[in-house]
Each structure stands twice: as structure tokens, then as C-alpha cells.
Amino acid sequence: MKIVLLKVITKYIIMKAIKLLLGFTLLLTLATSCYTEVIVEDDFIDAPGLNVGQVLQAYDLWYVDINETIGNGEVPFLQRAFTISFDHTGTVHANNNIVGIGKTGNGLGIDVGAYGFGRNTVEIDHDIDGIWVLELIVRSNNKIELYDSASNTSYLLRGYQANNFDYDMVFYNNLQYFLQEYDAWEKSYTSQEGAINDFDEETFLQFFSNGNENIFKSSVDSKGTSVHKLVWDYEGLYQVYDVEGDETLKTLTLDYDFLGDDYFELYVINDSTIELYHPSSKTVYEFKGKGYKLFLKSGKNSVSKKRKKTINPVMKVKRSRK
What we know:
Elements: H1 2-35, H2 52-57, E1 61-64, H3 76-80, E2 83-86, E3 91-95, E4 110-118, E5 121-126, E6 130-140, E7 143-148, E8 153-160, H4 167-173, H5 175-179, E9 182-190, E10 204-209, E11 214-219, E12 234-243, E13 246-256, E14 260-270, E15 273-278, E16 283-292, E17 314-315
Parallel strand pairs: 12-17
Antiparallel strand pairs: 1-2, 1-8, 2-3, 3-4, 4-5, 5-6, 6-7, 7-8, 9-10, 9-16, 10-11, 11-12, 12-13, 13-14, 14-15, 15-16
């Protein structure tokens, strides 16, 4: 009787231990499953299971919102890029130019380097800027942070698929850079309609930035003059404006000392042609870009560019050109 009772007690203890072990295993599995969930709204769980490659490749491209940058340092290739992409072959692509955005590289831009990844980090070997190791922090379903500890600077990137990314939005929000992507703009057309005014004499315009201010130059040299032989007669400040209540219209002012701010409605005809409508004289001018600057392509002819935090001022005007 004692032997039977002892067997029953022993069997009960073994079954209890097995149940406890199974319960602990299930709990551990669930905890691990919850712990490796890394995409959460406005938060980040420091998960050992974070697959950096899968995160970076989840979207065709990442939009670099320069105005959301945190810190006073910079990562040069992110400072220049409008979008950056990480493909499954380990190649990094970037849209560094407004000209051709949405078409260059099937929307992804040009090849600018290679990348690899470690635990919560991505290592980028940029063709021009060299090797950078950045910490990857997931902020939400389509938002990540790339943090450079050396400069204590963070870039916030939003992920998109190429077929639903608003390239036009990026284009129109960055027209000041578009104007700077040609060595010069040559006047190709002046309408017969419109009052005679001083701007009729201008043949070439040039737009650039000195890092703090947007500057333009103008020349009255004859059409067909080589950009390298142009004599720039005037230099002043320019400003691109948003228009209240009209998302597709931009305006441009050229600060002439002797005229004050000459004001135009700015229209983009294509990637190399702009139209300036002069409301005060009701004259239409067209300018074509000469000497396209391809930013960040490796080689002796590459050109450097940096974006800065900027928001276009808003002008309260009504569209004059129909």
C-alpha cells in the first residue's frame, strides 16, 4: 500500500514539474515574441532581434526631411540627399538632384555607395564621404532615425514605396535648389505682349547659395555666349516664396538695388525650362538651363551641395497668369 501511494505521489510530482516547465517555456516564447516586435508608434524597443537589413529594405526609398534634423553636426551624404535607398544587393542609392527626380534610377536616384549592418547599426561606405557607422532607431511604422554619435546628430527618414511617393511635392518644395542645378539660365523667349521694362535687357541668370544667403547674378551678354565667357553685370539676393492658398504656385523676387525687388510668378515647364511671368509689365519670359550639375557622382567633375533647414516664406498674392 505504501509502495502504491509512493508511486502515485512521485507521478504527481513529475507531472507537476512537466506542466511548470511547459508553462515556463510558453511564457518565454511569448515574451520573446513581444520583445522582438520593434516597430511601434513613436517609441523604440531595444530588441536584440532587430533585423536592420529588413527595416532598411522595407521601403523603396526614405525621404530625408532636412527640417527635422536634430543636432548641429552633419552627415554629408544625408545632408545632400532628398531621398536615400538601401537595396537587397547592398547598394545605396540617393536622389541628390531635383532635376530628374522620379525618373533617375527608376525613381531611386544614382548609386552612391554600399552598405552593411550590425546590431542596430548600419555601416555605409559612401563613394565620396567614406565610411560612416550610424545607429538605427525605429520610430514608427514608416519612420526611422539614423544617429551619428560622432557629431551627436540625428536624421529623421520616412519610408515610401516608389509608386506612391509624391515626387512633385519634393520638386515644388525645393525649387530654390532646382534653380541652382544649372550653371546659368539663358533667356529663350520673350512675349510680344507686355510693357517695356528693364528686365527685358537681361539675357542670363545664375542662382547659387553662399551657405547663408541665396544669390543671383545677371548678364546682358548676347544669346549663345558660353557660360564660361559670361560677364556677370549684377549680383543680388533672390527668394522663392510659397503662395497662400495655392500649393502649385511659387513666386520669385530678384533684389535689384536700382529697381527694388523685381517680382515674378515662377512656373516650371520641364526639367530644363522655367517661365517667369512679370505681373507689373504682363510680360512672359522663358529661360533654359545651361550646364547641368550632377551632384554627388564620383569623379573629378562631381559637384558638392549641402541643404540647410529652410521653410519658404509665404506670400499673399493672387495668381495673375492664367
